[in-house]
Amino acid sequence: MAPSPKPLKAKKVELKKRGISGWIVFAILAISTLAWLLPFYMALINSVKTESEFVNGGPLALPMGFDLTNVIDFWNAVDFPRKLWNSVISSLSGALIAIVLSLFTAFAIGIGRVRGRFWILALFMIAFTIPQEALIYPFYNMAKSIGLYDSLLSVIIIYAVLSTAFGTYMLSSVLNEFPEEMLEAAKIDGATTWTILSQIVFPLLRPTLLVLFTFFFIYNWNEFLIPLVLLPSNDNQTVTVGLGVVFGQWTTDPTQLAAAALLGSLPSIIFFFIFQKSLMRGVTMGSTK
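Above: the chain's sequence. Below: its structure in token form.
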């Protein structure tokens, strides 16, 4: 018997709908990408203009030449290499410590099945929803009392603690669904708790941990309020604080402000693109589990 034309027609309609929805998603992603790239593009073209070029042509006009005077002036004015190093050390250290603490605490809650784990997770959830403005005075007071005021170590500790709250909550949800059969088989084979964590759980969680590490690093890099309050000296300030000082006091030249924005955002963009493949692998892996 010949196949009925109705199922074939229904399949064609379904494929057509999928094709239309795919184009809609693509259009949304394209618009979002352009919206994300526009500020970076404007900072790039305006940072290599002279002030007269900016006044005559406006912010969207292409530069007539390639003048790095604004970039060099900002680089020297705020001691950018020093602030860049401070941002890298504080952001990287805070993210690494947060990943380690999140893994250990989430392992204890999700797989160790500690008592009261529901209330512990609820406490962590409440912790990462508290606005930083409400915590900045306690942070300042504690840093003063223990002698860590105007020290990068105080900022690193705060970054790590704040990120650990979210990391623990997320990883605990993942480990709570970890296959019990795999854990029981490992225990029968004589595996210790450390062996289960290091040789079974950690390799499977590596993509997720890398995603968290990337988010933590970028979040720490963009943080402004905490280093502004806890790092008053110029030698310990981060890139974001240096940008705030430039925007607030030193100049109203829009081309130099563009150079400051370009140098301030460029390191985090480079970091994102370096880990882009691993980041996307972790996201897609988590969505298919």
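The chain has a mean pLDDT of 79.
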